[in-house]
Amino acid sequence: MASETTFEQLFRSATESALHLEMRDGYMRAEPGFVAWTQGRIEVDDPESVWWRNLVRTSVARGVHVRRARIVSEPLSDYTQYEYDITEQHNIAAGEVVRWLPRRGATPLLLPANDFWLFDGKTLLVNHFTGNGDWTDTEQVTDPIVVRQCAEAFAHVWSLAEPHSQYRRS
Question: How high is the pLDDT of residue 30?
């Protein structure tokens, strides 16, 4: 049985797009950047953040459109507030385009149960988390029906979401 391609391999091999749908109100609360933020500091130069920005920058430089849509509860949880506070320096500075959709605006949408990355409209990398937001594993999906459904869900969210520069958190 062949092993699955890693996230980094999928990202580096993308030629057109890398789309990310986030729907949780909190993730990995022990990560150093979030811990620093809870202590009043914004740190985006830790090794993981630098690695991420370099990965996105090199992908964008070769023509890959990197888009991230976040469905969020309002008022924002502490974690999504942290994400909001670092988005300009961390995501947008690297070349990502980020949009926000208040959860209330997602009511008419049919959405997958899990966050995911979609690479070039062909390979879906589904992220699995515990109830507390700790990452557990990923699942790679290439079934064209599932990929199409997730691509359509992302497109619907994207069409309703507000660009980061226009989103006013409540």
Answer: 80
